[in-house]
Amino acid sequence: MRSVISLLTLAALAGCTYGPPQQAAMVDARAQARLNQLLAGKVPGRPQSCLPSYRGNDMVVIDDYTIAFRDGTNRVWINKPQGGCNLLSAGPYALVTHTSIGSTCRGDIASVVDTMNHASVGTCVFNDFVPYTTPGR
Q1: Signal peptide span per the entry (predicted)?
Q2: In a domain, 32, yes or no
């Protein structure tokens, strides 16, 4: 009886293991490649507490921990939300921001929304926005 319980315990624990590390590394590599492409030839500037709303129209989700806002071809603003935005980079999800002052700022809360059923599946809080700009422009 004791050996049956031991086998069942081992089987249950084996079912709790994560998938192969190569898959996670591949996803991270894709995200890093996407970020590298956006930041190619750009240098970081001083972090800003707010991003004017007109700059928030061209958002690119890199992963659950990095969001880029393109401002033309010469500037990209990077935000790394506090604790990340769970589910944002997986599946049919969108980031919905609500601003009352015309800017998205550090500390603002955004909703992660399922675009299929329009239900909120989480929230995230913005940090500072770091501008990356092409030198000389």
Answers
A1: 1-24
A2: no
- Counting the structural domains of the chain, the total is 1
Q: Is the pLDDT of residue 47 over 50?
A: yes
Could you tell me which residues come within 8 angstroms of residue 93 by beta carbon, excluding any fewer than 6 positions away? 87, 112, 113, 114, 115, 121
Residue 19 domain flag: no
SS3 75: strand
Please classify residue 41 by burial: count the beta carbons closer than 10 Å to its beta carbon, then call 0-12 exposed, 13-18 middle and 19+ buried: exposed
State both tokens at 130.
């770091």
Q: Residue 48 has what DSSP assignment?
A: B
Residue 5 is assigned to a structural domain of this protein: no
First to last CA, the chain: 75
Query: Is 118 inside a domain boundary?
Result: yes
Closest by alpha carbon to 25, among 37, 15, 33, 35?
A: 33
Among candidates 86, 109, 85, 113, which has minimal Cα distance to 97? 109
Domain range for 109 is: 42-137
Task: Count how many residues are written for the chain.
Answer: 137
